[in-house]
Amino acid sequence: MTPTSYPILKPYALLVRGLDALQPLAALLARLYLAQVFFLAGLTKLRDWDITLALFQDEYHVPLLPPALAAVMGTAGEVGLPVLLVLGLAGRIPALGLWVVNTMAVLSLSEISSEALQGHVFWGSLLAALAIFGTGRWSLDALLARWFQC
Predict the structure, then answer these.
(1) Is residue 129 in some structural domain?
(2) Closest CA to 134 of 97, 96, 91, 86
(3) Is 118 inside any structural domain?
(4) Tally of domains in the chain
């Protein structure tokens, strides 16, 4: 007797297949959402570099890095990594990179509102899921794996 021959397991098996079918779409939507959040933050920093440097000097206290270097690294991460994340190209690396940027943002602020913290926790959770489970079948990673039979 197979597990699907039990009447109670058939609806569960259908549910699992349906949720598995939604995984590529969910991963893509998470990638698009996160990329927008971080890319727009990076563009904001680029629009007025003097203010960005002042913020990293006076308000953001990134551990172990000089403020100017932290500003360059954070902004570069927020602008470059979302592009790779959207494409799903080496997708786990930009997910991890943005997770680090997100974590540093929280750690570098001496005061953060509970609403802002909840946003960062949500973004960090989505980024961790993408890093752990991958960027899904609708990504360049999956396409390249099929091409090269990896």
Answers:
(1) yes
(2) 91
(3) yes
(4) 1
Residue labelled with tokens 């039979």: 149
Q: Give residue 50's identity as a one-letter amino acid code.
A: D
- The answer to whether 70 and 60 have CB atoms below 8 angstroms apart is yes
Residue 4 domain-assigned (yes or no): no
Q: How distant, in Å, are the alpha carbons of 27, 33, 45, 115, 122 from that of 22? A: 9, 16, 35, 29, 20
CA–CA separation, 71 and 3 (whole Å)? 56
Q: Which domain holds residue 43?
A: 25-148
The answer as to whether 13 is a domain residue is: no
* Residue-level pLDDT, tens digit, the chain, 150 residues: 565 567 888 999 999 999 999 999 999 999 999 999 999 999 999 999 999 999 999 999 998 999 999 999 999 999 999 999 999 999 999 999 999 999 999 999 888 999 999 999 999 999 999 999 999 999 999 999 999 985
Q: Give the pTM.
A: 0.90
**Nearest to 82, CA basis, from 137, 120, 135, 136:** 135
Which residues are CB-contacts of 74 (< 8 A; sequence separation ≥ 6)? Answer: 45, 56, 62, 101, 104, 105
Residue type, 138: W
121-79-132-102 Cα dihedral, nearest 10 degrees:
-20
